[in-house]
Fold:
Amino acid sequence: MTKKKSSSNNGGKPKRKHGVKYGKSGEKSSLSLHHHDGVSGKIRIGFVIGVIIVLSSIIWRFAVQNDLDWLNNKRQFVNQQISSLLDSPLKSLVRVTCENGNCGEDVLHTEERTLISGKTLEKNWKLFEIPRDMQIWTLDAFRDGFVKNKLIGARHSNTDAFLVEQAFLAAYLAMLIKRNISAQYTSANHQQQKSSFYLDILPTYEDYESHHPVTFDLRELNSLYGAHTQTYFLVSKRKEEIESEYKAFVRISSEFSESISYKDYVAARLNVQARGFEAGPLSDQDAPLKELEWYRKNFGVNIREKVTAMVPILDGLNSHHIERNVQYKYVPESKKFLAYASKNIPKGAELFDTYGERADLFPTYGFVNGDFSERTSVLLGGHRIVDTRVVSANTYIMEQKKQIIIYLQQDDGYKECVTEEDVVAMRFKRLKRKALLYIVNRYRNWIVSFPAREIDQTHGSIPVDSGVDQIISTGRLLALSHRDYNGNAYSVLKDTIEELEQRKDDDDDDDDSPLVMKTGGGDGLEYRALIWVWQLASHGLNQNCDFHEEFTCSKAVRLEMDSFKRNSKQWLATYVRHQEIVSLETLKQYSEHSYQEYARRNPNFDPESEDFFYRNTLCPTDTIGLKQLISE
Structure:
């Protein structure tokens, strides 16, 4: 390769050679010595002046070049600042992330708060990766000096229970947002920081106020959904938990209350709830075991196996299970989250992830798919359920004892109502009451969930999966008699209760794991359990509808929904109610079809035998023995 010659004179002229002057014939000039000395002095002065001129030229050129470099840098900085001001925070975050090599060229574009494909993408095309230093973990929260020293020991006041992991991450996130706002007035370079762009993106309380039900007051929730609904229960439970968490932090740290308002905390808590991802397990390089054990002891949180992570850009993807075109995975070795195309994506298409096939999208995240494509679920039973981590179990125990008596008035499997005279049956009934008190606040014992279904599906195409298993198990408990499980029902139920108690003592129980009555109790028990499930569904429909012929109620609610503006509070409430009613109609249809088929196919079915007997009217509350259970 030919190299160009470089000039080494820095732009100066070549130096002139100085010496003795000769005449034309080569003889020395005949100038006098005095005159010669004068000329030599002038030559020396001229030489010095020439050097000064050359040096001045060099210095001037260097100074000008430095000024130009400074001006160019300044211009570039100003342009970046102007670009940052003109760009949305999401666009700025995407830009700086991609500039650091964390995403492919021209892969990600933005439109306001939406991520779209910048070009046609093939399946499995890597979209972006988010390194650990861009993520915010609960581990970071625990290591923060303020959280570690000022919020240690925060507990729910009514139960003295530790707060959950996400509460501490939310407190830390709220403080980071406050620090970021403060930095905007003290640091000219704060906008260059990726963390600043990310914190600017996160929704505020005012953003959530228009649509997230946790920001609604209880009166409005009751008006929109009804206090008997699953949505009301889940939202009011979360409101109660968040309020208790904030009070716990404020009670333990006045500094926290001075800098973080309740609305600040609610917004941060909802951001963690709606935008957090699961990372882990943690290695010794992430955090020594001794450090993690200290957090477990002082904060009541075990983050060794999994930890909540806030992941910029990845959490900016909207969610829709059917339209999903992006998948992600967490890489434990590098601590990176990688996102890639799950199918071919055309240029300009919105990028969708998914929260999964969940039925609680609205109470948890504050949105619905809007096309009836999500799972449906509903809360069953006629008793109050409380969150015993936040509210003392004794607060409503007397009310709950009275409410569960209705489950003991049925006496299915007995031709006559059980009284004190039947010692064996009454002994079993007391154990059954104990089991009911154990699960009265266990939410998972009282819900049912179904895959999405078409409104006009027939009996032969009822969409059912494992989401119905637990309510049938609860139905077994409600229908249980001492003769089931080949006469061993007492021992089976006693062992099941003890197993639940043991899990709680071992700290493996989250106060929501259900009591499970296993199969094998006999044909009669399965038949009666399905009838109990049918009755629970019928009770739910009576609460929600004036009439409940199959699918009539949900169709009426769907028509009502069309009268509201899409995504308004009324429209969302009607949509959510519709989904719960669909669950009730599906459950009623499924259980009725199942117990009828069970009876038809069972050669030993005899509706007059005690094994298959179910009671149409409840046993009176003044029945001897039952009356005593009420007062115990």
Notes: The CA atoms of residues 31 and 37 lie 10 Å apart. The first strand starts at residue 108 and ends at 111. Residues 33-86 form the longest helix (54 residues).
